[in-house]
Write a structure and sequence with these properties.
The protein is an alpha+beta fold. About 25% of the residues lie in helices and about 30% in strands. The relative contact order is 0.18.
Length: about 200
């Protein structure tokens, strides 16, 4: 559920109480009063968004199967087509393997396994979205890169029913386009996603 200024809720409840009283008394609005109410409502809806509503996030969107995911652009270091992926025995199911990125070995994770979604075979057009901060670096598997989009933080529904544990940590929320927005900061700081010490 998106965050809404509490004064808006208070105002809405006051209007609902007033309407309930009018309905109970059988009052009907005159044409003049109705026009005044509609004009006031139009003025309220025409107001520009508040400051905390205008915080934009630049999101790199990509697909995996039929689902679209997004990650805040500040955590996405680079995107490249995957040429070769070497699987590693004994790794968790979400680790699809490693690949070479400019002479460095990069682990590639499949978020479908992390979100308990069915995995699919790699296609010939898969990409890797590299997430990086000062402490950690890994790649996320992607079927197709959609592009960069700007979203207001208020457009992301942050209440996620049915998600727990690592899933809740990874998912920032769902956008109005029904994209799953991943929390890059949380993912990069999640110790269970670190695959440096593979035996």
């Amino acid at each position: 559920m998106t965050q809404v200024d509490s004064s808006l809720w208070t105002n809405l409840h006051e209007q609902l109480d007033q309407l309930n009283k009018q309905l109970a008394q059988g009052d009907t609005l005159s044409a003049t009063k109705q026009s005044q109410l509609l004009q006031e409502r139009s003025r309220q809806w025409a107001k520009p968004p508040s400051d905390n509503d205008t915080e934009n996030l630049s999101i790199l969107a990509f697909t995996l199967g039929t689902k679209t995911y997004g990650i805040e652009l500040g955590y996405a270091d680079t995107v490249f087509p995957i040429k070769q992926l070497t699987t590693l025995p004994g790794t968790p199911p979400y680790v699809r393997g490693i690949t070479n990125l400019h002479g460095r070995m990069l682990s590639v994770l499949d978020i479908r396994a992390l979100l308990n979604l069915p995995q699919q075979d790699l296609g010939d057009r898969n990409h890797v979205v590299v997430l990086r901060n000062e402490e950690m670096e890994f790649g996320l598997l992607a079927d197709r890169i959609v592009g960069v989009n700007n979203l207001r933080r208020s457009q992301i529904q942050t209440e996620q029913a049915g998600l727990g544990g690592l899933q809740r940590t990874m998912v920032m929320g769902i956008s109005h386009q029904q994209w799953t927005i991943l929390d890059g900061n949380q993912m990069l700081n999640e110790p269970t996603l670190c695959v440096d010490d593979i035996d």
